[in-house]
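Contributing new records

If you add data, match the layout below exactly. Sequence lines come first and carry their own label; structure lines follow with theirs. Keep one chain per record. Anything else will be rejected by the validation script.
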Amino acid sequence: MVAAIGVYSFVEGGFSFDGMLEKVLTASLVLLLITPLTIGVMLYVWRRTGTVRQLRTPLVNSLKLLLLFIGSVVVMVLTWMLANGASPLRMLLCLMAALWLTWFVGAGGLCVSDNFFGTAGVHRCLPPLLATVTTWLMAVPDLLSGDLHGLGLALGVVFILGAPVTVTGIALLEMNRLRRRYGIRLGTHPAILPLHGHVPPDGNPIGNPYTPGP
């Protein structure tokens, strides 16, 4: 975010608040489309070793969280738009609401970033996979369209690819750690993953969340 604001402010010759709001809405739309689509592909892969019925509850909970978050983003953007050009009293009220919603969405984004809208409750490897797919989907259109934000070819490519390459590297490390330490593989249905007794500080057991404990 800091890099993006710096590029828009000093390279492109001005920071566009409306442009930032448009990008927030675009990112929300990408999340709304790509998250269910990616999970649907994984359900097709997992159906060889298990059923979708076993995953119904965590899937519904994840969808609810995704819709609530995106709804909050849309309301925040609309509130900022309503504050533009309104009467002084209406502008003040809209600004107060918009600032609170911005804090709310930011705090919510931090909370859901670790488990990617609760998809870790479906499969531990889904959060790194979804983060990787989402960042690449946001970067590829800029590369294909040649929209390098006025940075030139070399620096523009580095700037655009910085996020997806970094996220992909971290995701691969995370999934490799899950496979080596806990035997959790992306292609394995969650219901047949090995059950481990290790419980991290957040209280969520690593391993099979669908098999009852002792």
